[in-house]
Amino acid sequence: MAQPIIEIRHLTKTFGTGDTAVTALEDINLEVRAGEIFGIIGLSGAGKSTLVRCMNLLERPTSGSVVVDGQELTALTEAQLRKARRSITMIFQGFHLLMQRTVLHNVCFPMELSGVPKARQRQRALELLELVGLADKAEAYPAQLSGGQKQRVAIARALATDPKVLLCDEATSALDPNTTASILELLKDLNRKLGVTVVVITHQMSVIEEICSRVAILDGGVIAEQGEVEDIFSNPRTEIGRQLVYPSCVRIAQLPASRVIRLAFNGGSSYEPLIASLAIDCGVKVNILGADTRNMDGRAFGTMLLGLPQDPGEAAKALEYIRCQPNITVEEVEHHA
Amino acid sequence: MLDTISGFFAEYGQILGQGTVDTLIMTVVSTILAYVIGLPLGVLLVITQPHGIWPHKWLNRALGWIINVGRSLPFIILMLAIMDFTKLLVGTKVGIRGAVVPLVVSAAPFIARLVETSLSEVDAGVVEAAQSMGASTFQIVWKVYLPEARPSLTLGGSISIITILAYTAIAGCVGAGGLGDLAIRYGYQRKVPSMMLATVVLIVIFVQIIQSVFSWLSKAIDKRLK
Ligand SMILES: Nc1ncnc2c1ncn2[C@@H]1O[C@H](COP(=O)(O)OP(=O)(O)O)[C@@H](O)[C@H]1O
Ligand SMILES: [Mg+2]
User: Which of A126, A202, A247, B159 would give a disulfide with A207, using CB separation of 3.0 to 4.6 Å?
Assistant: First the structure.
């Protein structure tokens, strides 16, 4: 297993004091491995931005430790921290480019800060603009660019100090779907070519699905679950996980059936043949109460809510049959007497 | 008509020219010196705020208080109140040198507030981005705040110059020289209406020119409008 490049232990962040204190993050533990694309997903206000800002100490944790590339960030002096930040760079939803500088000088900016000689700055900036596909815009100003182009400039700027980690806080949330896809493609590409570790913050599962290998789900300041994207997708274990992965499958409380089970398809067959064979092989009819499937790497993943028949014998038979299927896990989500 | 005009200039052209030059010198010198003090104060006001890049609660409050005191004194009162200080500093209470001191003392707090407003308009996200790249406080001021606020600072510059120009006229009443002095001595006391008119026209022209040039400049250097 690859070494963790980011290691967060028992991190807690509280804003304010006394009655008005808000605990934005509570006892967060996570590891990001070197070279991977790690996702952090959650609803608005879950604490995603706060968490990612703790990874470069833009936000100082109230307690806990943040180790990046072997350095305990919370123990560094201001000067050491500024230096460390050169290897943990960040891009944002709002791009945050310097509006009075050309594209080229925006990319030069971090190198200016660290005292790279002028000629070298320029050469490196042009290389980076080439890499993000904007070599022809070097002399343009940010106001003349589209959202996607601005984010490409921001990415080039973030890479100027050869960082080990690139933090992306909702980097595609202000972009249309096509542009989002091209930016995600670029991030994937840079991750592969440069080996830079990427941490992606988003509220959209599609973004995680597109580029991440592992994901943590953040809910109300705590990590609800984390693991391989494939696992979380095929079998989200928490309510929030299900909500995020299968937004159309969350009406469990209102369902009429007496026993509800949730099936998770882990990359095997799709669900229609299963329902058909249930009817044919066991003579049991089940209600499909909700389903959401998707294709990943050519395999079917998905979840389905089934209402079992009222008859306990038939229900048991159906359950037994489904349990025997490969690549399907079953979980009973509700049982009314 | 033409005779009266040429007659007026024959008689007063010399002192009108001198007055104009004095006013311009007082205005330009005071503006520059007032920025030397006001600009850093404005920067400090912004960065020492609770969510600024260099939070210092007490420094921020103290600065705010001093600036408010400076701003609340009418220029004429401030000028009279600090006359001894002026004498101590430049050796005279009158003339251009005597006027520059109260002009600077009065305009610097005003400029500090203008600068504060301009810098506050800089996108906090850009400042944060710079912090995330490891920029020091000084680098953020020098490479982010000031350049990003340049168009707005330029507009503020015209307000400062025009305000100081108006103050020089008041200073003129108390022996500073310049167009204000001419308006009082000739226009008012000696009842020369053409002199009154000439000073008014000149000041109006200056204000118009300053405003137009700075408005144009502010737009011309703003890369957001490209
Ligand atoms: N500077 C701050 N001061 C006070 N509360 C904050 C601050 N930043 C974030 N919070 C609170 O922390 C919680 C998490 O915010 P955030 O990390 O921005 O969530 P997300 O990025 O997931 O939408 C929210 O309740 C928010 O109001
Ligand atoms: Mg956020």
Answer: A202
Q: Give B147's contacts in chain A (Cβ within 8 Å).
A: 98, 100-101
Does the domain at B2-225 match CATH 1.10.3720.10? Answer given as yes
pLDDT score for A250: 46
Helices (H), chain B: 2-47, 57-72, 75-81, 83-90, 95-120, 124-132, 137-140, 146-148, 150-171, 179-182, 193-221
What are the structure tokens assigned to B152, written together? 């707005």
Q: How wide is the angle at C-alpha B146 spanned by C-alphas A101 and B207, nearest 5°?
A: 105
Give the pLDDT score at A335: 59
How far apart, in whole angstroms, are the C-alpha atoms of residue B121 and residue A185? 34
Q: B170 CA distance to ligand 2 centroid (A)?
A: 54
Angstrom distance (rounded) from CA A179 to CA A127:
22
| Interatomic CA distance for residues A107 and B70, integer angstroms | 42
Q: How many CB atoms lie within 10 A of CB B137?
A: 13
Could you report the per-residue pLDDT of A244-271, keeping only the tens digit for each? 887 765 444 444 556 888 888 777 666 6
ipTM for the complex shown: 0.92
Report the chain A residue with the minimal C-alpha distance to residue B149. A100
